[in-house]
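PROTOCOL LOG
Step 1. Enter all chains and additional molecules of the complex.
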Amino acid sequence: MPYALLFSVFVVAACGLAYELVAAALSSYLVGDSVTQFSTVIGVYLSAMGVGSWLSRYFQRDLIGSFIRIELAVGLLGGFSAAALFFAFTWLSGPFLLLLYLLVFVIGMLVGLEIPLVMRLLEHRLQFKDLVSRVLSIDYLGALAVSLLFPLWLAPKLGMVRTALLFGLLNVLVALWTTWLFRHELVSRRVLWLQGGSALVLIVAGFAAADRLSSIAETALYEDRIVLAESTPYQRIVLTRWRDDVRLFLNNNLQFSARDEYRYHEALIHPGLASLPWAKRVLVLGGGDGLAIREILRYPQVESVTLVELDPAMPALFKQHPALRGLNGDALNSPRVRIINTDAFRWLESQANAYDFIVVDFPDPTNFAVGKLYTNTFYRMAERALSARGRMVVQSTSPLYARQSYWTVVQTIESVGLQTRPYHALVPSFGEWGFILAGREPYTPPQRLPTGLRFINADTIPGLFNFPPDMDRTPAEVNRLNNQLLVRTFEQEWKQVQR
Amino acid sequence: MKRRDFLRAGSLAAGSLGLAGCSRTPPPGLPPGQLLGPSQALGHRLRDGTGFPAASETRKVEALIIGGGMAGLSCGWWLKRQGHASFAVLELENEAGGNARSGSNPISAYPWGAHYLPLPGPEAPELRLMLAEFGALKGDPHALRPEYEERYLCFAPQERLHIHGAWQEGLLPQFGIAQAERHQQQRFVEQIASMKATLDGRGRPAFATPSARGGSPTAALAGISMADWLQQQGYDAPSLHWWVNYGCRDDYGTDYRQTSAWAGLHYHAGRHGQASNADSDDVLTWPEGNSWLTRRMAQGLGDALQPNAMAWQIEQTAQGCSVLVYLAQENRSVRYLADKLVWAAPAGFLAHVMPSLPPPWQTAMAQLSYAPWLVANLSLRAPPAERGQQPLCWDNVLYGAAGLGYVVANHQSLQLHDQGCVLSYYRPLTEATPAAGRKLLQTAPHAYWARSILAELGRVHPDLPGLTEQLDVWRWGHAMLRPTPSLFSSDALPRLRQPQGRIMLAHSDLSGFSLAEEAHYWGVRAARWLLDHKDEFA
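Step 2. Run joint prediction.
Step 3. Record the structure below.
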């Protein structure tokens, strides 16, 4: 009997820590700022346990029945805590933190009640020194087990909702087991069986519905923040709003955040275009959001901007949606802009015009299909479309996180006979980001820039071209259609960053 | 047979052919598709050599080339290049190209046969000249490592093998293969590398492509099968045996137990091509396969190329060659009088139209046997779902399968998104005798092949049968010459290479195996012969 109770201490301790970790992880996931979330959740939880321990003195009679009821309450509350937090976050964005701490406090308090009650249940069966040493050591061991399991297996494999339910189930099973163990001592065992059975049914039902539950919760969560979600034949476009920040995701990859996209797009356009005061015809490949074009249209001498974008849904969206038109300054509705919805590679192959400035703003080379747009064959075609003194700018991943990839693109552009001027800028939502200017003539940084820029000015431009040692040039090979080195390199480098 | 009877028979044959080619409502669960192939009715009438109308016209040419496959077209290409105009190339089918023919649909063009060309080595200067002319080779065609147009070099990722439930990179089995077997593979690869570097007595590579510019088959290798040679050298690793057999079936349509070791080794050791911008084992390929080459050659010939023209009787006289040719479109025959004749169709078929076959050829032709093949093109709504790390490649091979796997026809597309994909499935019928294979090709209905192919590919791509919207099957009864030990240990090939009077053969058959480079070489050699150039490579 003592060993059975000691085992339940192990389970109870494990469950307690699990709820604490779920709450802390969930709140840092939803609210951000994980240091604050973890320390406040742990603080509230531990103090609540103290309150629970103190309150245990008011439990006089029917200790076993109380223990079982507390177990059931912890199991239900804790088990559904993650799902409840998800839903609460979705529908009550204001008092979410209040609810979070309330939930953490109540669970903590109930868990705090458990250990003193178990110790009192055991006090006549063990000596005091054995009692304390065994109960407390097993309590801490349970915590150790969960603290290892949680990050390694539970969180990645099961997810928050199911992890919480799993421990809820354990609590309920302990309750049922205890009911069985003490069936002869319990006064109201029928009621307890009934309560335990109902709790078990609820938790199991929760498990069965966990997929639906978490997807409802997460979809609901997304929908509150979502401006738009659209699946086109080419990609999944998701636009989210987070307070005053609008973010665009293509196939779940962040394309821009309204908070700092000006840094990216000013850096993409102005070092090149401001150095070509005579430029009249501009070509933009990729970048159907119109943000780069917004920057291009700051130059009155630019007569035409040709945008080649595969997915017609992108420009259509950024032409019509009021918030997005505000973001790109209604650039796509400008009479100077012509939009062609076709494949950039095929279009370049067949077109015969020359452009003074070409902006190559494709997604990162994450697969062999996009990788083709980073090969020497592609740059050779882009070079053909460049006017005699024209210049091209290429977005080319991060020279810091994907250094080898970045310099592979530089090497590849140079292999088609263009001179390059690599540069970089800090875009907080992406990190340190790289661009490459390319042309047939040497590049001179511009002295004059359009007014109203927030990031680029004549003083900051020279600094963009300095590469500190950790992202300086490294030897690289030419990326070709028949080797697609870049896709492999990029995958390896990005994997290391994410780990 | 009277003319009226013949016409009726002809239209019946054409009718039944048309029916066979029609898309009928497919059985439930199977995609629609056509059962295609070379016009067998015409071919079989050619074999009988009777039933053709008398000649209603006589045409005189200096040179007549019969056969518009790779060899015949190469012959015409070289003649044209040298400024020669008085010749005609006759093609039995309504389109030239032979084994390199292709089809197309809204998704992509796709091959019905030969679909790639390994990088030609310095032993194939004429082929390199042709690639330069067509824009596939840039700069100096005689450079040791020429630059090739990268749109035509096979894009990465190139090859993967499905083995032990997963895809691995490359075709040499590695995944789940024991260390001891891999050591044997390594030893084999090293042995091949040293063979590749070996020179013959005249300082030429022992194994070259075209093979006539390398060493002659040695008795030790010619008369033994590739399978026996492996055993003899102490190779018993099943994965190595599979890989070597795969090579023989892939290039020769012949099981390695029936392939001469000399031919089997040539597959591995005979390529010496390099490129300044690609690995030496990279290949040139196009969605339509080698018909990218044959179409350009055919285009260059203009009116000199006469499709739907079947030579049905050849006579050699003191004045020249007299050839009766049936023009299927016009339903009449014409007589061609030529100073010289090049037979650029499969060598074994000459006997059907030339009653007085020169005796040296007669005995040699008894040694020839041809392998039956099946090629299918599957049009898919979308590429099959991929579960592992290894993405869809150009060439996708299934370990231990009856087929050779599939090639993605639209792999060379530059587009970011295609509207679907076309998979070209290859299967040499090596499990039975060639005659039994041909019988199966003649009798098995479309549903039989569709079921068999979908079952095989569905094993690794469960969603493939559901994604397939069209499945067309091409049957090649006599796809390629089989490089058997008895062929290579006989004197058949040297004899067939010798012209007889005014007639010369030009076909990859003269090499003993069916490679585009070989066909090109024999075609150009015949052109030089026609032009009375001294043939420095004979």
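Step 4. Note key features.
The CA atoms of residues 368 and 487 of chain A lie 6 Å apart.
The radius of gyration of chain A is 30 Å.
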